[in-house]
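Wed. Picked up where I left off yesterday with SCP domain-containing protein. The coffee machine is broken again, so keeping this brief.
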Amino acid sequence: MNCSVNILFLVILSLGKLTVAEDNTSTKQATDWCERNCPKEDHIGCIHKNCYTLDSPCELAKIDENVILDTHNKLRNTFAKGEEKRQPSAGKAANMMYLNWDIYLEYLAACNLKPCAGMKHDQCHVTEKFSTAGQNLAWSSNKGDCAAQVPTMINNWYGEIVHIPQSEFDQIAEKYHKPEGKIIGHFTQVIWARTSHIGCAMARNKKECTFACNYGPSGNIRWGRIYEEGEPASKCPPGLLANYEFQALCGKKEPKQEPDSTLHSSQVQNHIVFLILPVTILFANM
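Structure written out below (tokens, as returned):
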């Protein structure tokens, strides 16, 4: 005589890298980065796929977005208050935005680094939210901890402030242009008042560290105004007030973004999946 018993087994599957694909229940379809190609260059997210996995021998270094944001916002706050001693003629900034993190700018920064080819600007990294996006790059030798070099890299960008002659600062701030023979674009992007979001990534190999940050909306618009002069946070965009921590900046810290279908099947992370499987076991009576 035979009999059967239904038993539920708990099975744990480690899937390692799991790709977040389009969610059919979402009202927002996955972004096709190739539809955002620019007139002079294809979109970096169209050229490279799965950008959180870099080409060998590079890999993404783990960086702390809070360190990047705090370093930028402290510099912007100091400048907006008129406390930058290296440019005493700069005055105060009335409309300097507080920077928040953007995961799409971060992903596209990783796309820039994917080929493991060192520093090379790409010209097309716009997103649905930002029709213009700026970019800063930095490089250093690998001294064992690439992430620890991030604050120095950002401060070096800002340090280009000394390349602007004091007699020309007001003119450049009102109508952005580069002084002949001077590199100032990293600094001006760091303090560009209307820029509100940033996303960065870092590549490392045994020899070097390469850091990329994308900014939205873009700074360094030729003949654009870097900032408006006036009392700090006195000309914030409608509905925005001075930041609680950085009171010379406009806007508040936004809730952390969660990856959704617009990352176009590119957000990769580790997952453990628990499955409960019904199994029928047949017993035979001899």
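Quick read: The chain has a mean pLDDT of 85.
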